[in-house]
Amino acid sequence: MSDTRSTWEDRSAAYGDQLTGVLFRGLSASANGAIDQWHSWLIATRLAPGLAPGAQVLDVGCGYGRNSRILLKARPDVQVVGMDLSSNYCRLYQDAGGRCVCADMAQMPFPTARFDGLMAITSLMYAGHQAATVLAEMHRITKPGALMLLVDPGDEINRLIARLRGGRAATPTGGSGFAREGYVGLIDKAGFEVLHKGGNSWLSALLLVPGFATGERPWMQSLLQATSRRDCQEAGYAAHALHRWVIARRR
Q1: How far are the Cα atoms of 32, 56, 169, 211 from residue 164, in angstroms, in the given order?
Q2: Cα–Cα distance between 134 and 190 in angstroms, integer?
Q3: What's the rounded Cα separation, in Å, for the pair 2 and 48?
Q4: Which DSSP string do the residues of 197-223 spell out, in sequence order?
Q5: Least packed by Cβ within 10 Å: which of 50, 76, 95, 125?
Q6: How much is the pTM?
Q7: Domains in the chain: boundaries
Q8: Residue 194, exposed/middle/buried by CB under 10 A (0-12, 13-18, 19+)?
Q9: How far apart are CA 78 and CA 48, in angstroms?
Q10: May I ask the CATH architecture of the domain 2-250?
Q11: Whole-number Å distance between alpha carbons of 108 and 61
């Protein structure tokens, strides 16, 4: 874990409050911006409306606070606590006025049944063989009926990218993806009822087109944003998606 922490400390120091630090280092600012736009839509339309008034919410792997800000904008009545492995990111989160705890996902320093809601956006992917342990911790610290939003990479598209590039299956940011059925199965087994699920299959397909993952031309940026908006309305839980999402309720 010390190596993982050191990696994230270096990364947060290098990128600060830039999307490159918390999303894909191999993608352009426009491509990461389109992904961030989609994440923001998920928070505002899939998680925020289902939270109880005054809900206490934990942002797992909060980074510098981009997702907490979206949730608070959509639901100013809720209270959000950030948690990250990197002390640099925790400092940035706190500098922006939020409360943040520096901790490991597998050992969360919170009492049982502390939170009414939880979001972990591209965080569980870094748990590796401890994914079930992390989900068990999420179950422990949330109240019965708590709502949870998870977003993580799809393993299938990572394998496809690896074949196209002649290399091994790996996400551009490190960590690991989850298979389509394995993801929901893991969440269900941890004691959460999966209510809704989806992915960003349209944007994922566009990013496979040569030039779109790294290009910064204005027309590319416009098409990336338009395709991300299409994922907000039409994309289902597809076999090939760079990111998949699940809304689940704690049993």
Answers
A1: 21, 44, 10, 15
A2: 9
A3: 34
A4: EEE-HHHHHHHTSTTTTT---HHHHHH
A5: 76
A6: 0.94
A7: 2-250
A8: middle
A9: 9
A10: 3-Layer(aba) Sandwich (3.40)
A11: 11
Q: What is the per-residue pLDDT across 156-182, written as a single tens digit (0 to 9) for each?
A: 988 888 777 676 545 444 688 999 999
Here the tokens at position 45 are: 């339309």
Q: Rounded distance, CA 231 to CA 80, Å? A: 27
Query: pLDDT tens digit string along 196-244?
Result: 999 999 999 999 999 999 999 999 999 999 999 999 988 789 888 999 9
49 DSSP assignment: G
134 in Cβ contact with 106 (< 8 Å): yes
Residue with tokens 């120091």: 13
Joined together, the tokens standing for residue 138 give 């999420």
Residue 73 contacts residue 65 (beta carbons within 8 Å): no
21 in Cβ contact with 122 (< 8 Å): no
Q: 160 burial class (0-12, 13-18, 19+ CB within 10 angstroms)?
A: middle
pLDDT band at 186 (very low <50, low <70, confident <90, very high): very high
Residue 161 burial (C-beta neighbours within 10 Å; 0-12, 13-18, 19+) = buried
Q: How many residues does the chain have?
A: 251
Instruction: Give the pLDDT confidence score for residue 85 in this predicted structure.
Output: 97
Cα gap 124→119, rounded to integer Å: 10
